[in-house]
Structure formats: structure tokens, C-alpha cells
Amino acid sequence: MREDIERGEHPILLLKRLPNKQLRPQLREAYIVASGQATQVRVDRLRIQLRDIRAKQWRDNAQHVLREIERASHFTREEIRLFQGAFNQLLKDKVRRSERRQLAYRGFSHQSVKVPVGLDIPSEEPELGIAKEEFLTLVERFCPNLEEFTGELFDRYDEDKSGYLDFRELMVCMSLLSKGSFEEKLRVCYDLFDYDHSGYLSSFELEQLIASLTHHLKASNSPASVTQALAPVRSQLRRLLKDDGMVAWKEFYQCVINDPLLFQIFAQHLETAGRYSTGRMVNAVGALQRSRDPLTQKRCSDCVLE
User: Fold this and answer.
1) Please, are residues 305 and 97 in contact by the beta-carbon 8 Å criterion?
2) Mean pLDDT of 54-65
3) What's the gap between Cα 281 and its chain centre?
4) How far apart are the first and last CA of the chain?
5) How many domains does the chain have?
6) Are residues 72 and 168 in the same domain?
């Protein structure tokens, strides 16, 4: 056994070779010891570490990770590599920005002057993804009809609830916005208004969804025309409400695709496919941090910041 360990044999294979009579008592003893040490704080800390390790794997795009992103999105491997270059450059820009903020903070903190409002103590944690504010910029550019629901969209794709979108999460989201089918986009729209995550839309949630359709109608119609245009939409969708006041996804989808008016309105509301090339989207990701941060341009008598 010692020789196998020294040769780097996989731990699972080593465990399989041990007799049950020898293995079970040892595992039971190890479990008792570990369970006494596994406090909630330590468990949460380990989860954060594992989450960040996984985010680094997505960022660095190992071969097996690349294949997984390719399966989970509509992008080709070549397109994923283009996004990877822009994404990594974005993270480098954010690191440089953070370093300048640290210099600015140290420059003010060594003097008896008040730190300017907005110049918070910078975080020294590694940059692993894009924040909600940066995501808002992308949605404004590529899917303006969903702009007011950016927070909900961000939370939907922030699967590990880290507070940022890692590379895989961003790719899956951008893939849907740019290349997703009508059914995929409609399902996301449906889920965004399922506030309680019940799998159904209540009467209130359905009304909120209908109201969201006014965004693209307001651009070319008067308020009265918008109200008139939405009247048949509201009437048709509210027919789906059952005695319990709920609408299931399958019923909602079938109603939309089988009604020409509903299909046209939702298609206009959700349409982004073909409007933006992969190159434009890649450039948009890379451009998120190119603007100068005004907070880092503040100067004091003892430190000069670029």
C-alpha cells in the first residue's frame, strides 16, 4: 500500500483495495473526528474556497472545462476562446484598477485628510468574474427590453450565489441572449416573473409580465395605443388562469406560440438573435473596464497617481 501511495495511485483506487473489515472502522473513526471539527463557519469557508477554485478553472479554460462550456452554450469552441481572451483582459483591467484604488487609499490614509466619498477601502480578493453593475451594461446594449430586470437575470445565472458571474455563467447567459431559441428566451422571461420560484405564475406575476411588454411598444406608440395593443394580450393570457389562479409553463408556452398576436409581441420583445455578431459581443465584454476610474485620478502632495 505504501508503494502505491508513493507512486501517486488515485485515492479512490486505494480505498477499493482495502478489505471492508479494515475500511469501515477507519472510515467511521475518521467521520466521528471530522464531524466534530466541521463547524458551520468552516463549512461555509470551504464552500467559498471551492467556488473560487471552480471560477478559476472556468477563467483559465482547461480542456475539459472548455468542452463543458461548449456543451452548455450555443457558442463554438473558437467563439469561446475569443470570449476567454476578452474576459481575462477584463479581469486584468479590474486588478489594475483595484491596485490604483489601493494606492489612492494609502495616499489619503497617510495624511490627516478625509477620504473622499466613494473611495472605499479596496478589496484584495482576486477578480474572478463580472459584477452586477457590469452585467447591466451588457444587457443595456444587447437586450434593452430586459434592462429593468437585469438584477433578476443576474441572480438567475449566478448559480453559486457568489455575487459575480464567472466565465461559464457569463457564457451561458450571453449564449441565450444572442443565440437562444424563442422557447429558451420565453422560458427565461417566464421564470423572471416567477418571483416565489413555484414553477407557476400567479395572477399578480402574470400581470407584471404583461406590463413588461410595454417597453418596446412605448418607443413607437402613444400611451393610449400601448394600452389598446395590450388589451387583447391581457385578455388572452388571463384565460390561462385556473381556479387556483396559477399558470403553468406548458400552458403559457402553447398559448403564445399558437396565437399569432402573442407570438409577434413576445418575439419583438425578446428578439436579439442575429442583431449582434460574436465579434461585437466580445468587444463589449472587453470594453467594460476601459474607462478611467475618476477616483484613481485624485492626487495629494505626497503621491502621484496616473
Assistant:
1) no
2) 69
3) 16
4) 60
5) 3
6) yes
